[in-house]
Amino acid sequence: MKTLKVFGSLIKDSLDTITKGSKTYHLWMGFLTLIMLIGMYCYSIQLDQGLSVTGMTDRVSWGLYISNFTFLVGVAAAAVMLVMPTYVLKDIDFKQAVLIGEGLAVAALIMCLAFVVADMGGPSVLWHMLPGIGVFNFPNSMLTWDVIALNGYLFINISIPLYILFRHYQGKESKKSVYLPGALISVFWAVGIHLVTAFLYQGLQARPFWNNALLGPRFLASAFAAGPALIILVLAIIRGFTDFKIEDKTIKKIALVVTVAAQVNIIMLVSELFKEFYAPTHHSESAYYLFFGLDGKTALLPWIWTAISMNVLATVILTFHKLRNNLNVLYFACILLFVAIWIEKGFGLIVPGFIPGPYGKIAEYTPTGIEIGVTLGIWAMGALIFTVLARTAIGIETGKLRYKK
Amino acid sequence: MSDNKKKWFTLNLNSKHKQTSSSCGCGKTSGGCNSHQPKKEELSNDAFFEAAVDASIGDERHKDGFDQVFDVKMDRRSAFKKLTASLLIGAGAAASCTSVTSSSESKEKAQIDWEEQFKGNYKLMDDKEKSATVDRLVRSYQLRTGKNINMSSKNAEEDVLFGYAFNISKCQGYMDCVSACVEENNQDRNSEMQYIRIHEMKDGKGFNFNEADDNYYHEVPAEGHFYMGTQCFHCDNPPCVEVCPVQATWREEDGLVVVDYDWCVGCRYCMAACPYDGRRFNWSKPEVPEEEINKNQHYLGNRMRKKGVMEKCTFCVQRSRAGKNPACVEACPTGARIFGNLLDPNSTIRWVLENKKVFRLKEDLGTEPKFWYFMD
Q1: Which of B232, B137, B112 is nearest to B181 (CA)?
Q2: Is the complex ipTM higher than 0.90?
Q3: Which of B288, B287, B251, B245 is nearest to B266 (CA)?
Q4: Which domains, ranges and CATH numbers included, belong to chain A?
Q5: Which of B265, B269, B367 is facing A125, going by the closest CB pair?
Q6: Is the CB of A284 inside 8 Å of chain B's CB atoms?
Q7: Which residues on adjacent β-strands are paired with residue B228?
Q8: In this predicted model, what pLDDT tens digit does every residue of A245-265 receive, in sequence order?
Q9: Where in chain B is the domain with CATH 3.30.70.20?
């Protein structure tokens, strides 16, 4: 009973914190709300008229939504790169960042689920997927694995920080015996969500571009580069706008994680390119389309070459200690890397899977305004959720939010 | 009549052009196709019923596709009425309430909608439940349009396994099969959805799909070309079935790979998994003009679809399980298409498999299609 009372007080205090703030804060939240409303309006059009308002067709049947979903699974998985050092390896340098990382994972996972729902033709019959009431095609369908993996990871990433913050809110220390098992599971689970998501594509013999044993490992490498890169940027912003203490040391340690992951990612990219272009087969056509265009259809060319150059540039910058240790250069490299991987692991991965089609048909895909509106709306929702979570967590961690008996 | 002959493969794919003339679209140039017979007789017989329905649900009758069955626009009053009715039914009070709603018809409609919304997966239904949902759908159509449809829930027969063979030497690319398929299976006319694709290939290039054109619009047979049709191959090991998260698509006992349109959640994973371009999605509300609707339907086949669900070739389950050939086989003027029971040693399809050099597409994927190609 007492726990409930404390919890109620926590909710009240947190509501109080998130609704008050500086002018910049209010502008930021207002901006996000506006984008969300526009996104909701676009989604209402899609609900009314069907997915025909998107650029997707029978030829390219997944587009911007699934691209963003795939990318964000990676961002969510990246939280593990902070969880493992903090809780398992007891590296105190990561301690301040880990709650932020977990908050980011929660926001990314909610965005993932939103993107999947936005992509569904019949969101009103999603209950067909609920085990018990509906039919859950487990273990045959990788999509059901993904449902379990994502929701499980969401649960873990909500419950651990909630427990820790809840204890700190009451001025007590969190008990290791309670959160350590969860943290350990979450380490494996994070690898799991991204591998399972890769298997979703990797298991399709119909799409040679995806049906490739390197897809899963490359997903992980790019995720552990893009995710922590985003965390660095978020920490930089938090450092600038709040009095939450984050040491340079922490950021530099995360930067090391980003660097190694980005290097591995580049090695895998080279391996992939070598396989596709040294001895090109019929199955290399999607890669040809992506990098050079096929039959004069070149929609993805500017995107992928921007991504590759940004990716290489960022990796080179990160590789040199001198450059990486200069925080402003580091932030710049992180932005480059994040955008590059968003392109590469987003529509650079999904769209070419469908081009050329099963019988060689080359039909290109361009997202429509409504699709982009919904996508931006979901990103704004993610940012809003993260802001709310981070603000509460920072309030508690800095000692401003405390339970008053 | 041949001037008005309707084709579903015009070049302008985005055209919203609707067929307004009453010309026959079945592709036959002489005789009747039975789908456009004057309906005067019926009208006079049902005149009273028609008028009664008109009075109650007037404008709902001009809608097409799934709308006719479910998506009914309502004013606030009737919406409230329906809501009340549904709630009462939900509470199990349907039997005892007599005068809450003014018409028993709208009450019945609401009950049907309610039960249809929360029914289970057709694959897991027993025969009684199957015929119950079919009865509901037929009654619902009758209540809304005043017209009767004939819907079957016939299961697979024993010792039947359907197979298909395609004679590449004979096909001339007329696409009568495509038209017949669209007519038979009530596909969406606006998006010009087609299950069959005919690939026009260049002589001397072999089976080069990359250079083939599956959207041609010129006189056929074109000089120096040959033709090859593809559609759902009804694989014995179908990847689309494996990946469906809700088992909304499955392989029936007689080998047909079917979809429960009411159970599909529209994730399109099956579409990504199909190596043969065999699946289609309803990107918007499918529409078929009332007079063109094929009223001889099967639950797993050509009944009306709704937006946001998958559909595909079912080897015309409404025909094949009734002992007939699929519409494409019947429509083919050159005899390039052969359909039959693979388990019947005397069937034509068995003769083809035993006496011709047959092959299948992408056999290396291990999907075991039941669709063979051969040449004379």
Answers
A1: B232
A2: yes
A3: B245
A4: 2-397 (1.20.1630.10)
A5: B265
A6: no
A7: B199
A8: 888 988 999 999 999 999 999
A9: 162-374
